[in-house]
Fold:
Amino acid sequence: MKWYSPLACLLAVAATFLFTQCNQQEKFLRVLVFSKTEGYRHASIEPGIEAIRNLGEKHGFTVEATEDAEVFSQENLKQFNVIIFLCTSGDVLNDAQQLEFQRWVQAGGGFVGIHSATDTEYDWPWYNELVGGYFAGHPPGVSEAVIERVDPEHISTRHLPEKWVRTDEWYNFKKLIPTTHKLLNLDEGSYEGGAMGKNHPIAWYHEFDGGRAWYTALGHTPETYSEPLFLEHAWGGIQYAAGSGAAVDYSRHTVAPPENRFGKVVLADNLNEPMELDFLPDGKVIFIERHGAIKVYDPILKRVKTIQQLEVSSTLEDGLLGLAVDPDFYSNHWLYLFYSDPDVAQQRVSRFTYTDGAVPPLSDEEVLLTIPTQRDECCHSAGSIQFGPERMLYIATGDNTNPFKSDGYAPIDGRPGRKPFDARRSAGNTNDLRGKVLRIRVTEEGSAEIPEGNLFPKDGSAGRPEIYAMGCRNPFRISIDPLNGALYWGDVGPDAGRPKAERGPAGHDEVNRAAKPGFFGWPLFVGDNKPYRKYDFALHASGEPFDPEHPVNLSSFNTGAENLPPAQPALIWYPYGESEEFPLMGKGGRTAMAGPVFYTGQYYENDNRYPSYFEGKLFIYEWMRGRIITVTLDEEGQIKRMERFMPSQDFSNPVDLEFNSRGELYLLEYGKAWNSQNEDARLVHLKYHSGNRPPIARIDCSEQYGRAPLTVNFSAAASADYDLDPIDFEWRIDGKSISRAEAASFTFRENGKHRARLVVKDATGQTGFATEEIWVGNDPPEIGFQLEGNRTFYWSGEPVPYQVTVRDTEDGELHQGIPSQAVALTMDYLEQGYDMATIAQGHQQRVFSSEGERLIEASNCLSCHQMDKESVGPSYRQVAERYKEDNPAVVKRLAGKIISGGSGVWGEKAMSAHPHLSQAQARKMAEYILGLDEAGSKESLP
Structure:
């Protein structure tokens, strides 16, 4: 959406001025005041806007004011060099708008935050750094207090008295950024309700991420904006934020590239549980599927070929799980596979010779390592393999432990006969290869050897010498920094939805970093070394929490050392609910993955190589939550920043992410349903366009289904080109070209599903595509609804006469071919404060189920449950059938299960907890699911 205003249109010919700061520089100032609220709305917003406009008139600068977040695009923001968040609250920007605001600051923009600007965007860490802190509460009402001037030289405070007595609402803060420069401090002895002690900043400033930021907590009351001292304070903040007054410069290499420079190009779909991918020297993509298929995508022929079907055991979570191409493949043609032996309970890491065109292509298997396992109980196979520097091959193995009898907490059941239920025997065992990341060196001759620098000596005297990192649960995807050799992995965590005093913490997933070998906690600790308690499973008795500095493995199944190395905390950890430490990870189901670290110098220069903005950034991703995040680390390996990557894009359970030799990013999507082939299981190229971008194709069609002959009018008017190139159009119906105009019409005469495809091409030859499915064979019914009398309002308790008509070409009319029970009539009203787009369609349990359906679609539920088919869990219709006795007790019980998770009713597989859902939301979801058993018997108004 383009956003302009009358004043903005005058900027090219007017609105230049000279104002004076301490250095007497010329400055051209254009200010945007943004005051959108999604939480508390201050009565001071309107007086504040008027006051800033008056400042503009007084000092000769232009002011635009809006609450429309659509203004946050490069085209609009480039007009301004200062943006003021005036008493904003809540989540006011979506993902794409956040990225555009960040890019504007990186381009040199200046930010001013007033009052509740710190009560805004709590789930966006970058904004926390920009604004300098978050609101943490305030004492009731407004009161008089003493403000201490800390900086007498700054342009926004030099006019103030050393002790400034005034009346306002006094904020306490959390997550203060220590690098800001304090301007004003609040004397907590002068009022009641302060919670920060002597160091209580109330205004500050700093340079940040290429721009400047200034904040004042003053400004709650409307009267504030008529106070001369405050207005001069705010004017000084605006001048500081404006800096030199130069226009923002988007050409800086530190500016994040806009999302529209990245495209999701699907190379193959309908895959069957894809696992890992790698690249051959000729540019082909090789990838594997869990049931043993080895496939190659040819970028020239643009097609996928199955080159071999490996015999594997694919029971439980086993299968063909890991793939790596030898760093010297060009000369030795070696591939490495991690797979489950089809005959013996063990995992194999083997080297094969790959000869393109041979039958079979993979031959001469050389087993480098075997990992004994048990297959009587599920779970956790891991299986990721990857080469690091110096021909080091890293191998991830799961703890091979049943987690379902531990209530989502530590599986440490050491009773006789319970061996598969005790992860201390594997992940916590120095003499076992499971629950680890192993490291071996593959020599140039192809043999495996133990390198120096692993966790235990090469002679095996203290533990298995292959172990590099131990204490892992399910390290499903690993990555190695190609420059410094640091190891990263995502570890899928346990299922407890909440902490339990007698057992330990809630379940957390982890992203770990190991610059040196170590013990990473499982099953004694999780996250940042949150300890579990010793637990007697027979007596249900708790003991002391484990000590991360001195962890001890006293399992009766432990065959290694009792005293373990000190536990290392995770780099990133997060629960099912919102993470206080890492809010960008989102909420819902969890499956952490670690992807590559990008360095420009690793790849030769080309138009599609990722830009230097990503230099040194780690790419992590979340399978269940469908998001990719970049992580910037300092020299010590500590997190500096996390940012969403392609935040507007929907990813269908990303399962592997790799850069090829050209610095281009490729992705495997597992698909939404587990343990099955999925249409949305895909090989994807996340393509970066440094120059001209391909056009975007968009289709509007007059009909999508109807009776033959069906005439459909198509329009491509909504198609666009980001570079404003002229676009050529081509319409194809079922593969046949029918028109090259912007609009087309076609009459479908055959019943069935048809595909309309729009191809748009710009002047450089780049293309974009869009498709729509057209269903021919049955006309939709015509529905009529008539109200008698007044249509504007109604009297409480008085009947409202109405009449409903239904006419269907194939089935007849209501009561004449169409039975009344096939028609459901519902009503609802829009309560003040509700969103029209998401309001439920009523209050009767069976009919008005759209809210429950929406909540399910917005969650991760469809990854494990399908409507009619079993996946990881039962189908929704199976659940509805089991709980036919739909009553409040059943709804309450199911709602509780949705929130807390658990297992046992439908087998051992645990259902993810959803602690972020309210009881009311979980009840709506349960009611919707239970209502599926009553197809055709919906409640209805007469």
